[in-house]
Design a protein that fits this description.
heterodimer; A: mainly alpha; about 80% helix; about 0% strand; B: Rossmann fold; 4-stranded antiparallel β-sheet; membrane (chain A); ABC_TroCD (chain A); ABC_BtuC-like (chain A); transmembrane (chain A); transport (chain A)
């Protein structure tokens, strides 16, 4: 397999993008989970789908857009969706979770309409739904690299501010932190990560990359930094092992990755119970 | 004259159309330990949130350390311990050290990391509240009283000149409460930190504080402890909800 990686560009693209996403999705995911925003990741993935479907429609029907990469439209929709979610959460102050079904169904509604306009399902769309890491192009890889750099920069520069905001939002404001601006920056980054990660595992599974490794490590790690470290290890290991397995067994990579993460989660639950003496 | 740490003048605050605070005047001098008492819903927490800049009053002025609150930027001079149940996710995966260190965030400033001296400061604050044995434990594994001590350490780590505590002993057992008041006494007397303690239990604090303010939408009493004690014997109970406004300002 390793000689094949050197030989085939599509395998290089697949592995490099897998490594990058296996790193940034759980890294950002820790903050998403502890801030109880896991479902927002799900809602945003459906909005991204609408963007992708819209992009596919444009590129198939209008010659001007024929070379348009639908991932850009997906990113745009995701970012826009995150802003709308924030507006809705503020509007329905006491029913903040309402924002999620609203955005999710709007996303699916637009997706279905765009899909029908683009003459129904085709392989491209199927790839976006369930992930197709072998279809990752060089351009996709460059976009993923750019987003990964942005995420790492955000976490390195604002680690202590993001920690404080996640742990205790009121205290962060009382200390004079620009909590609103920081939150907006955070949610926009989440939107970008979702739209690029879906290339690897697909829209239906993308939020699992952000949440499952964190769910597995949160009960067994002590402290926040160790939780981040363990989440990234689990995420990265699942992606790499999943890609290798799917290559040799000829099974869907996205699903394989998620199943490995579920196994890690089950293992961590057993470990955590055993430690507490309940088994 | 002593330095004024907090000065509130003619402050009004309303949620929707209802006034929660009416014509509040408070001045707190350096080194004071003010007990702010009042029944539930009397506006105590609202007043604190105004002082912390979390809420903007419709009328009146607030000066912190002699500076108008709109110009005030030295938020690290103020430590804040909230009613923990309201703003804290107890299964958050963070160690005691990480929680206390987060109190240094504004003092360090953007893009700066903790240095060795900062780590030492964090340990010092943890020792000050007697939690050094739990440094590397997750905050969620501690009891309510221990968690509250960690939150005090978080407020102390930036070496505040003013410490604001909003009913910090709710849900904490009585033995821990005693330790807790001893700790506050120590902070006030030895470290000369000005304190504001909000509580609805007047009896528990009168022998600890230097000043008392009674709030129920309006300020019914604001003065030093001796005046309060004298008043207490005669008509403390009628004070609450009494239409007559009784504001005494003491300037020692």
């Amino acid at each position: 397999m390793f000689s094949s990686i050197l030989q085939f560009e599509f395998l290089q693209n697949a592995f490099l993008s897998g490594i990058l996403i296996g790193f940034i999705a759980p890294l950002l995911g820790v903050f998403v989970v502890v801030r109880r925003l896991s479902l927002i990741a799900d809602a945003l993935s459906h909005v991204t789908l609408a963007g992708i479907a819209g992009g596919l429609f444009l590129s198939s029907k209008i010659s001007f857009f024929s070379s348009l990469n639908p991932i850009y439209v997906g990113m745009g929709f995701s970012v826009l969706g995150s802003l709308v979610i924030e507006k809705l959460r503020a509007f329905y102050k006491f029913y903040a979770e309402l924002a999620i079904p609203i955005i999710m169904s709007a996303g699916i509604g637009f997706s279905v309409v765009f899909i029908s306009l683009a003459d129904g399902f085709n392989t491209d769309l199927f790839n976006y739904l369930f992930g197709s890491v072998s279809a990752v192009s060089r351009t996709d890889l460059y976009i993923i690299t750019g987003v990964a750099a942005l995420v790492i920069l955000l976490i390195v520069l604002f680690y202590k501010e993001l920690f404080l905001l996640s742990f205790d939002e009121e205290y962060a404001s009382a200390l004079g932190l620009p909590a609103k601006g920081l939150h907006l920056l955070f949610i926009l980054t989440v939107a970008l990560v979702i739209s690029v990660s879906m290339r690897v595992v697909g829209i239906l599974l993308v939020s699992s990359l952000m949440t499952l490794p964190v769910a597995a490590s949160i009960r067994i790690a002590t402290g926040f930094k160790k939780t981040i470290f363990l989440s990234v290890i689990i995420g990265e290991a699942s992606v790499l092992i999943g890609l290798v397995l799917s290559y040799y067994l000829d099974i869907a990579p996205g699903g394989t990755i998620v199943i490995l993460e579920v196994l890690a989660l089950i293992f961590s639950i057993i470990l955590s119970k055993a430690r507490r003496g309940k088994i | 004259m002593e330095e004024k740490i907090v000065e509130v003048k003619n402050l009004f605050f309303q949620y929707e159309r209802k006034y929660v605070l009416e014509n509040i005047n408070i001045s707190i001098e350096k080194g004071a330990f003010l007990g702010l008492v009042g029944p539930n819903g009397s506006g105590k927490s609202t007043l604190l949130k105004c002082l912390l800049g979390l809420l903007k009053p419709q009328k009146g002025t607030i000066h912190l350390f002699g500076e108008d609150i709109h110009q005030f930027n030295d938020w690290h001079k103020i430590g804040y311990v909230s009613q923990k149940a309201n703003s804290f996710n107890s299964s958050f995966p963070a160690t005691v050290f990480e929680v206390v260190a987060s109190g240094l965030t504004p003092k360090l400033g953007l893009f700066k990391k903790m240095k060795k001296a900062d780590r030492e400061k964090v340990m010092e604050a943890i020792r000050a509240v007697g939690m050094e044995k739990a440094v590397h434990q997750n905050i969620g594994e501690l009891s309510g009283g221990q968690q509250q001590r960690v939150f005090i350490a978080r407020a102390l780590v930036s070496e505040p000149k003013l410490l604001i505590l909003d009913e910090p002993t709710v849900g904490v057992d009585s033995q821990t409460v005693n330790h807790f008041y001893q700790l506050l006494h120590h902070l006030n007397k030895e470290l000369e930190i000005t304190l504001i303690l909000v509580t609805h239990d007047i009896g528990a604090i009168t022998d600890k504080v230097t000043h008392v303010a009674c709030l129920n939408k309006q300020l019914y009493f604001h003065g030093n402890k001796d005046e309060f004690e004298r008043l207490k014997e005669t008509e403390l109970t009628s004070l609450y909800g009494h239409p007559v406004q009784l504001i005494t300002h003491d300037h020692e």
